[in-house]
Amino acid sequence: MTTLRPLFLSALLFVCSQSASAALIDGFESGDFSANSWSTYGAADWSIDSSTAASGIYSARSGRITHNQSSYLELELATSAGTVSFDYRVSSEDNFDYLMFYINDIRVFLITGDTGWLNYSREVIAGTHVFTWRYRKDSSVNSYLDTVWIDNFSAPLQDVSNVPVPATAWLFAIGLAGVAGLSGLRKKA
Ligand SMILES: [Ca+2]
Hints:
Blueprint: H1 5-17, E1 22-26, E2 39-42, E3 47-49, E4 59-61, E5 70-79, E6 82-91, E7 98-103, E8 106-112, E9 118-124, E10 127-136, E11 147-156, H2 167-188
Antiparallel strand pairs: 1-11, 2-5, 3-4, 4-11, 5-10, 6-9, 6-11, 7-8, 7-10
The structure holds calcium ion (CA).
Calcium ion binds at residues 27-29, 53, 55-56, 58-59, 151.
Organism: Porticoccus litoralis
Signal peptide: 1-22
Keywords: Membrane, Signal, Transmembrane, Transmembrane helix
């Protein structure tokens, strides 16, 4: 029994993990910001761009700003605990103009320079979060294409407590529980 208890706990964890997978929130393939309640603000608004994308045709691109300005894209979303991720590309003055990513007004990531498409991911706790992407320029110099893009924003959406678990996962857990119980009885006899 003692040796099987960890197995049973693993099975239960397996069951729980089945219901909190990350979902693609937006790849911008609608060609606009209509798929979610995006907001954009700052010296210039973000827009949809078809000149580059991590996948599909479209990405979201920061507004055309100049020195000492910022352009923001933001989405408020209720998530479960799990991984948020997005693809990004930056083409900005090295070490002076940045793509910055905030969760609930706390900056958790920044990147600068001229990159291809890369991926960023981070764990979040369950709750309502404000996700903000900001292109921020310093006081001088424009380098490369002087803009940043994001694509394929994903987040864990489902709440573990009220999501139906696949029958196979429950059968797996119940089966292991049965094996553990029988084994315990056998040892006592
Ligand atoms: Ca896309």
